[in-house]
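We modelled the chain as a single entity of 180 amino acids. Its sequence is:
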Amino acid sequence: MPLHIRAFTPADASALRAVFESSVHTLAAPYYTPAERAAWAPSEHDAAQWAERMRMLQPFVAELDGRIAGFADLQPSGHIDMFFVAGDCGGRGVAKALMARIEASARDRGIAGLWAHVSLAAEAFFRRSGFEIAHRREVTLRGVVLRNARMTRRLSEPCTLRDASAAEGTELAGMRACGP
């Protein structure tokens, strides 16, 4: 069955949690210690809180071979809050398809740039996708320090409006997103 990207439904929440845990404990294993992975994706979690977070993020869902293989979201600011591929689906085009959907959605929505806090495990993929490291970070999660990087990608360059009156009185006055 081919790879398919679709919109999130509330019934996806528990399967997305399984993808998240699988990704962290499998694909990120070469980059993070067992203690770091346990702090990042503990087996004990609040299922209702997770379901609400997914409902708020409204991620794109990747299906491969009839099952959920990954998910990623795009927020109005260009922030990608979550981007995960199941541990047994790495290297099968799931991340590439999700990133293509994010980029297309961003362009459709007039979002000029993307940014994410990217794990060490995902840095190479994000670089291949045109992102650059803005800065490295250390975050403490459940008492454990995790390393990651803020990565950014510009999708379009600002340019002058032909009709400046269209944006008059807004923060966009004299500017608009244009070009790829």
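As a brief sanity check on the tokenised model: The helical segments are 13-27, 34-40, 47-57, 94-108, 123-128. The mean pLDDT is 89.
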